[in-house]
Amino acid sequence: MLIHHSPFERVTAVTDIFMGLLSAYAAIQLSQFSGFKSDVWAWTFGLLAFSSFIAAVAHGFEMTLKTNDRFWMPINLSLGLALGLFVVGALFDLSGAALASKSLPVMLVVGFGFFLVTVWKPGTFMTFIAYEAVAMLFALGVYIYLLFTSPLSGVEWMVAGIFVTILSAVIQATGKAGKAIFWHFDNNGVFHLIQMIGIGLLMIGLSAM
What CATH code would you report for 7-208? Predict the structure, then answer.
């Protein structure tokens, strides 16, 4: 495969790699702790890292549309499962291990269901945006509630991280691929930059808990 001719796609691929490395670092850090909560968040960031590295290939190289669709299948699966696990992690902080454990298989099924929708209608980006919006808004509501009702440390960082994640998703959804926001950064490249800030904030929050 040849390097993609579009500078926007090449920049997006590079930012995907950096986001993947940051997510992998978060997953490794969290995996050093034992327990259900640490495992959930480690898998969340691990799946995000996996999807970022595959997306770097999908964005960075010339390929047929059919081949590109094949690359997006594992990306969508891992992102769907990661968002489901994000909700499970929020439920753990809201109500403890019992509710989170019961919700785990449900959210994994929901994440896999999202993947099946993308297989049924490939290239429907707004499907992911809608799914992400529901998951992130739910998690934001949970942590805002905890911010005012719980002595749990790090909650304010979780609120900030989720808010930045939602902001990055809005920019990705409202921008246009291949249209400069600055230099060769289009909506996807800027999304990755902002999302990395969100990941950093979430790491701070989780490490304080």
Answer: 1.20.1070
